[in-house]
């Protein structure tokens, strides 16, 4: 199966390992991965801050980029996928009706990585091996906005040796929320502090998630606390093999 890979800004600039492991994982599952070099930022920071007009050029670039084929488009970040899924509405409100129609065709092909693996490829056990105890953090964009709840859990349950632990208020936001963490820094800081306290209570070796931005936020707090918990994106976990 031919698949487009949308790298996202954070994976491209900050977490290249997530991008690399996503591509390797898709290839392991039999996909021919295509990277279209014209792709750029989805515009999420501007959109979330109310600067829709300023985000329009980047949105048009993304639509144009992925119009060149009709293959599925897979991204390792639910927040970016959700932002893109709303392109038709943004274009319509801006009076760009032609672009709204073009966007509908493109956004229908966008998938979060876990959604694609479980629901499009029909796979829950990728043959991964990672012994130890872990906590899974369900990001707000993935669970509340995209409705992807069971897919990451199903994939992690298929990882040999991994023991998933539950924590208090597991569904609570980590406090990142994109520009929220900048505009409401004090509140955001208290939210991630509380999240980390609940994680550390069960003494896991790993904190796993499917949204890079949330993982950066939680990892930052864990490091400030001097914690030894290793933070991993699910793509990195699923590429772990038995040595």
UniProtKB/TrEMBL annotation:
Gene source species: Haemophilus parainfluenzae HK2019
Gene symbol here is lutA
Q: Where is the Cysteine-rich domain?
A: 3-85, 135-219
The organism sits in which domain of life?
A: Bacteria
Per its UniProt record, what InterPro entries does this chain match? Cys_rich_dom
**Name used for this protein in its record:** Lactate utilization protein A
Which Pfam families does this UniProt record tie to the protein?
CCG (PF02754)
